[in-house]
Amino acid sequence: MTDKLIIFDTTLRDGEQSPGASMTKEEKLRIARQLEKLGVDVIEAGFAAASPGDADAIHSIAKVIEHSTVCSLARANERDVRAAGEAIKPARKGRIHTFIATSPIHMEKKLRMTPDEVVERAVAAVKLAREYTDDVEFSAEDAVRSEMDFLVRIFDEVIKAGATTLNVPDTVGYSIPVLWGERFKQLIARVPNSGKVIWSTHCHNDLGMASANSLAAVMNGARQVECTINGLGERAGNASLEEVVMAVKTRRDIFSCDTTIDTTQIVPTSKLVSSITGYPVQPNKAIVGANAFAHESGIHQDGVLKHRETYEIMRAEDVGWGANKMVMGKHSGRAAFRARLQELGIVLEGEEAVNAAFARFKDLADKKHDIFDEDLQALVSDEGVAQVSDHYRLVAMGAHSETGSLPVARVVMSIGGKEQQADAQGGGPVDATFKAIEQIVRSGTELLLYSVNNITSGTDAQGEVTVRLSKGGRIVNGQGADTDIVVASAKAYLNALNKLDAGAERAHPQV
Ligand SMILES: [Mn+2]
């Protein structure tokens, strides 16, 4: 018999905690819709108590998602649990995920609570959460460094209080597969009534073993895996959804469970998350990396041509590679454009937004012959980017580079509606452009990262630029896309400045 393995995606919560990966409500909605299409069982949509904006985003997601369960994180206190309960109210299926730290180091140094107090708080939070929903998950934060006897005790108590899923997180990414599997085996054997709840694993990738640890837990009875698209997440990230799902699917011979994920949606989801968060996927990343199914080496190629299974354990089509054919071009009409957006799960509010997006599409089609799904996603992202705040806006720019002379750039931009202009030299056209912008704004920010990725292939492809800026401890990622990478760079830089201008600081709990 094959058990169901529940896929709990936390891209919108843990993933969002990656430096600068915070997303707007519209971006979160687009990802949530795609996660539902992918067949994710539970979408952790955020942490409602972090800010009114976070609560609003969860609430909006809860309203539109039909099949997946929508979940909010909550620390084990009344304010957090109530905020989560309110945020998930419109959901057809809603879950509250409450947590408290259970390791000696966290209880003593962070919470300054005795173990008895921690149990009391956990039980109270679970009972309160049950007033809002029957679907309550409890996490023992830093379970990896918690004492087994204490874990058994607190899990026993929260089951009695009404928890239906028990999550065992390796918050700091410290475990190794054999130990993590053993931990689940012991917990399930020792906790009374362990058969009445779903056991869940949440692993971080600090030692590169998040997926391996998650799978070891599954082999020892876990039936929910918490993971993210592209392994996004705090520090080195979380277990990546695509690796866990494809490992279980590919090795049906050893796993006695399977997911109900539509694996052909994996690559489109990966690209969407990468484009929205500004976190590119490394080419050699399992499943979703550009090279994951490329068999370039002559010897391998020969084998693959003669018989595919000689080197391929999975089929590229099964995870959604190659699904994105050329969809549109210069002559595509408004109806076709609209229909394709709909198929991609992109909902634009009102005729005006459709018209604006269509105008940008026509602009792009003038510069680029074939328009792919990725281009459409980037175009809509760019549109959303403009909506974050347009305090800083690019009016016009020019950059010139020539061998034997210093590159120069001229930027005309508007700040709060007032136009200003500057010229600057730099090591290259992008450097000169950024210097010209800084001459005008004097932002006092530090540039932490600059990267360009092509959205599709070919030299006429759009370049997608990420600029990560930090100021006063806050970190944001700005993005911009254009067929001209210098223009894309300027857009990305201004987007980051606008985000710094707009956003407020939020609480970020670590589970
Ligand atoms: Mn985490």
From TrEMBL:
- Keyword Manganese assigned to the entry: answer is yes
Q: Does the keyword Amino-acid biosynthesis apply?
A: yes
Q: Where is this region: Regulatory domain?
A: 393-511
Q: Name one GO biological process term.
A: L-leucine biosynthetic process
Tell me the route in metabolism or biology where this protein functions: Amino-acid biosynthesis; L-leucine biosynthesis; L-leucine from 3-methyl-2-oxobutanoate: step 1/4
Which amino acids does the record list as binding Mn(2+)?
14, 202, 204, 238
Give the E.C. number(s): 2.3.3.13
Provide the protein name.
2-isopropylmalate synthase
Q: Which organism is it from?
A: Sideroxydans lithotrophicus (strain ES-1)
